[in-house]
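To close the section, here is one more complete example, presented without commentary so you can practise reading it yourself. The ligand is FE2/S2 (inorganic) cluster.
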Amino acid sequence: MSVGTNGIGKPVSRIDGPAKVTGRAKYAAEFSAPDLAYGFVVSSAVAKGRIKSIDRSAALAVPGVIEVFAHDNRPSLPSSHEKYTDQVAAPGSPFRPLYDGEILFSGQPVALVVAEELEAARFAASLIDINYETQEAVTDLDTQIDKAFEPPEKRAPEWNPSPRGDVDSALSRGPNLIRKEYRTPVEHHNPMETFASTAVWENDGRLTVYDKTQGAPNCHEYLCNVFGLAKEKVRVLSPYVGGAFGAGLRPNYQLFMAALAAIGLKRSVRVTLTRQQMFTLGYRPQTLQTLTLGAENDGRLVAVKHDAIANTSRFEDYQEPTVVWSGALYPCDHSTVTSRLARLDLFTPCDMRAPGGAVGMYALESAMDELSYAVGVDPLELRLKNYSETDQNYGKPISSKALRDCYLQGAERFGWSKRRPEPRSMREARELIGYGMATGIWEAFRVPTSARAILAPDGTLEIACATADIGTGTYTILAQIGAEMLGLPLDKVIVKIGDSDLPSAPVEGGSWTAASAGSAVMEACDGLRKELLKRAGAVSNAPLRGVDLADLTWVDGEIRMTSDPSRAMPLSEALLGLNEPITSEVSSTPDERVLQDYSHYAHSAVFAEVRLDEELGMLRVARVVSAVAAGRILNPKTARSQILGAVVGGIGMALHEETVIDHRYGRFMNHNLAEYHVPVHADVHAIDVIFVDEQEPRLNPLGVKGVGEIGIVGTAAAIANAVFHATGVRVRDLPITIDKLLALRQPTNNHAA
Amino acid sequence: MQGRPQATSHPPERSLLPKLEIAFRVNGVERRVALRPWTTLLDALREHLDLTGTKKGCDHGQCGACTVLINGRRVLSCLTLAVMKDGAEITTIEGLAQNGELHPLQTAFIAHDGFQCGYCTPGQICSAVGLIAEGRAKTSDEIRESMSGNICRCGCYPNILAAIEAVMQGSET
Amino acid sequence: MIDFDYVRASDVGDALSQITKHQAAKFIAGGTNLIDLMKENVEQPTRLIDITGLPLNEIQETQTGGLKIGALVPNSDLAYDQRITRRYPLLASAILAGASPQLRNMASTGGNLLQRTRCLYFYDTATPCNKRRPGSGCGAAEGFNRMNAILGWSESCIAVHPSDMCVALSALEAVVHVAGPKGERAIKSADFHRLPGDTPEIDTNLARDEIITAIELPSEDFSRNYSYLKIRDRLSYAFALVSVAAALKIEAGAIKSARLALGGVAHKPWRAPDAEQGLVGEQAGRKAFCEAADIILQGAVGFAHNRFKIELARRAIVRALEQAAAGTPQSQSVKVIV
Ligand SMILES: Cc1cc2nc3c(=O)[nH]c(=O)nc-3n(C[C@H](O)[C@H](O)[C@H](O)COP(=O)(O)OP(=O)(O)OC[C@H]3O[C@@H](n4cnc5c(N)ncnc54)[C@H](O)[C@@H]3O)c2cc1C
Ligand code: SF4
Ligand code: FES
Ligand code: FES
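Output:
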């Protein structure tokens, strides 16, 4: 298959742009249905215990209240936890909403009020009187360290590479040793759209659900399993998704609630979560990490040891790849990386943008920075000294790795050479200035995905795939691929996604959609090409008779012979006499051998400049340069935006974000956007994105790696390292807030152990 | 699902306070609705007037997604009671394009990729319309500060700034 | 939000008679605080009296050379009014340091004074809070108290008043004009907000059946040497950890008069007359400013999560006074702290 440069690689504007800037794009809570009722969820006020009784009389007395669903009156539901599982579930027993009166976490949905009016449902919900028998909840990870365990069932075995060499004796021999503890807090995804489901009860007993999800097929399967519905009786759609960042990977409880009520009442029901309830869903778990590095005097690493403890719930063993990078990235003969879990009385964590990578690389890259001061080697130089072309964990070659170019081009653009090595050595007026850098790495996945391409007789191409666009630009890149394949202008391509009726796709996550859905679309279009060539060849005195598919170029509405462009035929001619659309549907799967023989990563080098008033601790990220190697960039405009957004996420992670738990109540307390701080406009200054050239020859026919997550990995570390360079203060506990900076303010040149 | 919920017996109803008739102009069109006092302008738009372009990100004044223009000023519809806006002139994202032509800010947001998921976008654009009308913010720092009431979790801030600056300089791209 | 009934007041007298008639009624102006709290079921008025139609939205010169600001003047109109920006730039700056443009377009002058604390426990009805439910306990004292008080707190409540505008009003010694069933009265800024004591449910000395009609700014305006410095956890759209309103009159390098008020540290804008007095006659400089900071922070006691605010406040006070003395007030849009 050949890929030209017509549609692919151009910075075209989003095809869903006009719908989004005019308010026409409809999100899950915006579909209406005749006779729609409104559901409002009642959340548990306690974190652990059981419901003794529910008094719903006052709620039912509110005019317009139709029903109050709770465990004590719910319709029969499967008891097996299995039935509630989904494609992204962690090992364990998934939560069963409204199943029984047991309270597993604060904010657990315990009832659903359904009413004719939204406000009446909300009002009635506040009148429901629940009597709890409470038990003490344990939510403080620090008290559970000695109970930390290795999860018996692994979510992904490759995240737990076996040790190599003898790390402890190597560390004891090494001339330089860094051993530090790093902490990262609970963070919530907080997409701007809150979770919502509009369950439309069709008169023939079918259920159509508009859901905020990253995986319509995943939710479809969940509904069928939980409610015992036939597959063809349910359809889940998510045409537009107002951000998710991982929060929409698993079916969330509003989906269950809306479906339960719609089926129970035989009526359409919408359930929208409040912002406060967004804090009762999955989150980035808290981590306690210990990073130990042993190095020669010249900075070459000898040994790496990384141990991470993260919290999970009582009922599922959520795991993420926190430590795997420490074993993989830098060459050294001795390495042991371990991940453990500790159970808390909280809901199960859930993948959040670069799960594991964002926090694990914060620790590794902070420790590398500490090492650079200890051995007196420039941080960038240190990375270059420890460069490797193989995956250290498995000794496998890396299919493509242009990280060196990221380092060099990023440093050049940033002006890294202007950095003075000593901490506290750069200032302007009252401000201290710090330069910091870090490496980013994220796995480049590809997963089986199906897609369909339909070419209508009028030359319009329709592409269909169940995947989602959560802001990632999926609509646009799939259209570009279609346009490229058939040489069509972009506006001749219609993209249909976010629908469980469409050819199946896995959840939109892991930055794999471009590579997976993109490849599937490409292959589906290739099927169309074959068909078209057949037709073109059949035309009398056809210029393309007997020509091989591989020798053709599809461009400007024409099919041309690459070597002799005068032998060409307009696409419209090939379609002449066609009455029915031509359809090509494929199931596209990665080449297992390629996955076996090679490791696949996207890389980045992140450079940050911080400025702060040293007396007051007010900190500003003045500049970030993120240089990314992620194979072919399908659309530099939308890809750049993904990196920008992830860098902003990294700024939040470094300076702002933390969900605090009051352990007395086992409850997240800053459950709103006024006190859970995410960056605002004023916090974000210059961000420069570089995509370095990288040829990825094997992973997929497009040569792409995803760019949704790589932008956040390394960013928090680069900022934290810049803070140290500016101040001489090493904050090892995110976020870096004023109090931590002030309390630690003590000029030191070298914080290395 | 095998069973059905046991029908819940409803206790005697109290009554809700009656709906009030209100009229306002939304995007140049006179709209009359009967609403209870507790309905916010945001819910009135989204649930009663079929104008779902205005978004609900927090419902508490903490995100800016619900920004609309009332009598030309940018305000938060989630903290505005609809009954208090009887007689007002309201402009939402749906009312910015004129005769099928996008508003320059809408065009600029597309050209500069000032959004990803698009959920904060109507609020950002309405807020930017208000900002430009106010005529106070001129420098990048001032625009950033003056747009800080509009959170974008997708992190499109640099592109949003570029779009607004382009329009302020008289171009859209 | 509970079911409530809505009426419009036609004039101040009507507003007063409505509020007197209905015990559980509340006035509503911009609504930015009240509706927020009603949605959280923290406030549960059964009747809202809309006062936005009252003729209280003018800014007028007073006979004593000051300004009288109607209670309904929106925060943004106030901040950008020429008379304010020229004569009372400290007030303009403080307003612009708060909330967001949209909120400032909605929020009224009177409502800003009466906004309630942002204490996490006050907002969360699943937790105890003496201010919300007297006698239930104070969730914050042993909980998350980063945004809580270091001065003037009591055993029963450690909340702070979150306003920025009020800090400047306090420094400017504004007077609050109110009307009630028994007539009109004027309350000095210093006496308007109160300390929690053992009745934290009462925020101010305004009676339930009184209405704020105007805020009066005295003629002394500190238009040359002032600064409003707000320290917070992100660079905009966040409540203050600590904020400082500093205003000086300087002649030949010596301080003739001084005003200093702190926000984010107490149940009311915090002032200390002795700190201000101590500055008078001193050379404007770090030494005098440090002493003033020490005096105003005397007796400050923090909690697990906010002890740092004592030292932070000290530094912010010194800096704000330096900014004021130098005539380089803090910009609210350029984030470099001068
Ligand atoms: C997300 C967010 C962030 C914010 N950030 C800041 C900030 O950083 N700094 C800051 O200072 N403020 C901030 N605010 C608060 C905002 O300034 C206040 O909500 C606003 O000033 C209140 O004014 P209002 O007119 O909307 O009051 P309303 O909500 O209408 O009323 C508040 C109270 O005052 C009473 N009331 C109103 N007017 C009168 C009157 N004339 N007489 C008697 N009683 C009256 C009402 O009955 C009610 O109890 C923020 C608010 C939000 C939602
Ligand atoms: S500090 Fe005051 S407002 Fe906060 S919980 Fe305690 S009593 Fe309530
Ligand atoms: S929805 Fe109104 S500010 Fe968030
Ligand atoms: S575009 Fe997604 S929140 Fe702004």
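Once you have examined the tokens, check your reading against these statements. The first helix of chain B runs from residue 41 to 48. The two ends of chain B are 54 Å apart (CA to CA).
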